[in-house]
Design goal:
Elements lengths: L1 E7 L11 E4 L5 E5 L7 E10 L1 E6 L16 H11 L5 H17 L2 E8 L5 H5 L4 E8 L7 H16 L8 E7 L7 H9 L6 E5 L3 H9 L4 H7 L14 H5 L9 E5 L5 H10 L3 E5 L1 H7 L6 H6 L4 E3 L12 H11 L5 H8 L1 H6 L17 E4 L5 E3 L2
Bound molecules: zinc ion.
């Protein structure tokens, strides 16, 4: 098949006018032709681009859609999620996860960076055509529990690692949950077992996280108290969270920093210098939902940060749509153009998940999925 469009984005940039994509029935790109004198070229009014990559999602929380109110702030939100996540039957949870997967596919998402605290998503990973990198979260703020927390995460990761599927990419790694929920000992244990695989972490999602690290004060103390966590051995570093825990992680593997709503210029400079394979994953609709704020995206751009996009979970978002995340960014930062946004949504996301050899860009020998964004802004997956 030969496809052309008003505009074609190959995952990195707009391609010149008159470009024709040659694709086989399975969606494999055979060639990208700058010009082609051919009669049977199918022309699409609107945009063609690769399938979207959602770098940060929690499909296992899909049953919490509309369960937590908006704009409560992060500690309140976390408390609500912990209280409510087990108030549902296994059947309700499974039905919600399946519906979420269908929504992701309908919205042109072909690969997922998915957070798992349990093995609840095992069956979901096997169904459908989605590529997965499952980040099995290690959580534990009490240093004495580090080995126990890590063993639990290892067992969960091992269950995912047993899964095989010839038709799609299935990857997994152990990732730290967040700076306020992972001790230095646990960070170091994760780093020691990282072996070059991508990891992600919720980073600087609230001002309170930096306050905890700067001076051991702020909203996380009553939060930790409330859930029975003994934080007495934690000591403030006098620095923000990122430059503190960054020293406890391996610099050799890809690191995905998620949210970054309260990252300063100094934090960005530190991380850019420290981690050669660094990605800044933005989930603007979740930030608006929880804290009613957004990261300083122009600051990240000015620092040459590699940006990618995620939806976070249905507990903190009204939909699982990368296109909706792009529209929100455009609404608040209209100077960021679609060429840039589409790169974040496709190629950069594939690189963050280490899947760029197969997906993320329209190039010969890849199978990136092809999306048609129509003139009325609706979306259809062609391959
Ligand atoms: Zn998250």
């Amino acid at each position: 098949m030969f496809l052309s469009a008003d505009k074609i984005h190959d995952g990195k940039k707009w391609l010149p006018q008159n470009t024709v994509i040659e694709v086989d029935e399975s969606g494999l790109i055979m060639a990208v032709h700058p010009h082609l004198a051919q009669e049977n070229i199918q022309h699409y009014p609107g945009i063609l681009c690769p399938g979207f990559v959602n770098v940060h999602c929690h499909t296992e929380l899909s049953h919490l859609k509309d369960a937590v109110p908006e704009h409560t702030g992060l500690t309140q939100f976390l408390q609500q999620v912990m209280q409510r996540r087990n108030d549902y039957s296994e059947e309700q949870k499974a039905t919600a996860r399946q519906a979420a997967l269908q929504e992701l596919e309908r919205n042109g998402i072909i690969a997922l960076g998915d957070i798992a605290n349990t093995t609840d998503t095992l069956a979901l990973r096997q169904s459908g055509n989605m590529h997965w990198h499952t980040f099995v979260e290690a959580i534990g703020f009490v240093p004495e529990r580090a080995a126990h927390s890590f063993d639990y995460a290892q067992q969960t990761r091992a269950a995912f690692a047993l899964q095989k599927n010839d038709k799609k990419i299935l990857q997994q790694s152990i990732a730290p949950h967040a700076p306020y929920s992972v001790s230095q000992a646990l960070f170091q244990q994760i780093a020691a077992h990282q072996s070059g695989k991508s990891i992600s972490i919720h980073n600087q999602e609230s001002a309170a996280e930096n306050e905890l690290y700067q001076s051991k004060t702020g909203a996380f103390l009553p939060f930790l108290n409330g859930i029975g966590i003994d934080y007495s051995s934690f000591t403030a570093s006098g620095k923000n969270s990122l430059p503190t825990y960054g020293e406890w992680l391996s610099a050799d593997a890809p690191l995905i920093l998620v949210h970054n709503t309260f990252s300063t210029q100094a934090d960005i400079d530190y991380a850019q210098a420290q981690f050669p394979q660094l990605f800044w994953c933005l989930c603007p609709n979740a930030n608006l939902y929880i804290e009613n704020t957004l990261p300083n995206i122009p600051l990240l751009q000015a620092s040459d940060a590699r940006i990618c996009l995620g939806t976070d979970s249905l507990a903190s978002n009204h939909q699982l749509s990368i296109l909706a995340e792009m529209r929100s960014i455009q609404q608040y930062y209209p100077q960021i153009d679609w060429e840039t946004l589409l790169r974040w949504a496709t190629y950069n996301g594939a690189c963050a998940l280490q899947m760029q050899a197969s997906i993320g860009s329209i190039e010969a020998h890849k199978k990136p999925g092809i999306l048609w964004i129509k003139e009325d802004d609706s979306l259809q997956k062609l391959y």
